[in-house]
DUF1679 domain-containing protein
Amino acid sequence: MAISAIVRDKILQVTGAERLAEVTPIQSLWGGLGELFRVSLVHVDSMSDNTNIPQLSSVVVKHILFRAPVDHPRGWNSDLSFQRKMHSYDVEQHWYQIYADSCLPTCRVPRCLFVERHADEMLLVLEDLAIDFPELIEQPNVLQIEACIYWLANFHARFLDQAADELWPVGGYWHLDTRPDELAAMTDLRLQQAAPALDGAIKQCRYQTLIHGDAKLANFCFSADGKRAAAVDFQYVGQGPGIKDLMLFISSAVPPALCEEWQEPLLDTYFRFLFEALQRQSKTAVVDWPALEQEWRFMFAITWADFQRFVQGWCPDHWKINDYSRSLTEQALLALDQVAAEPASVNPIVASDNKVDHD
């Protein structure tokens, strides 16, 4: 893969390498807006010239070009979709500059070695997680699923009640306020009409954390033994209930035919990991754990229905629209109807005087 001399020289400067041994494409970015690639490095001395960066055998580079997209894979070409994607790269930049170093070893993310932003492009040079997490998995086993859930629980514990300054005020790429075109395209009128209520319930959760925002299986990499996971791609990180990430992960990693059977065991695993992480981080004294668990368990169906709302408008024949997702959506709509019919004193999970509005 060929790269420009300017990008090559910047990588050499940042890493202290003598030369680039190999440049290997990982993937093209959305709409042809740049490339993600791995660079193998050759060093002369045992120590890097840059004392702030250890000598590395490889790095991952994200080169983003701020220009009109070439195409959209599903035809959603609009100025709004373009601006949303451009803002997502700004969010990712801020994530790496402000927040990433706060992650603990139990929720590994790439270390940002260098970021440079110009009017028409951005360059991110990142730690290559493949050194410690070489495996990418398409069909995970139980051990790998639990490794991802462990990462999510520890990430959510680390950033519980964290303000989302310079990130998305509502994490996740399917957030209703950013998807009016997909909402208008829906044919399920009942779900379409319930969309504001679903969105409002999520925003008004008492317990908020930073969520990854695109916690699908493809954004996790694994240690060789499958016991540990790390996460990449932080374009949609922002505030929300942690269960929103778990919902998206399960939708991507568990076959629909198994979701109903596995739902409660996976939820139990997540909340066990979350409680243990809060204990390690000395946060259980300031968190009403029973209230948090009750609220987020209740929100599992709500967040799935909210995601179903997006998928139905975006791609109505998508495989994630299935019997299980329809069943959870129906459960969520009935729950919202019940909450609306009850006074706040009866159902404090969604209708509460302690709600925080994160609009």
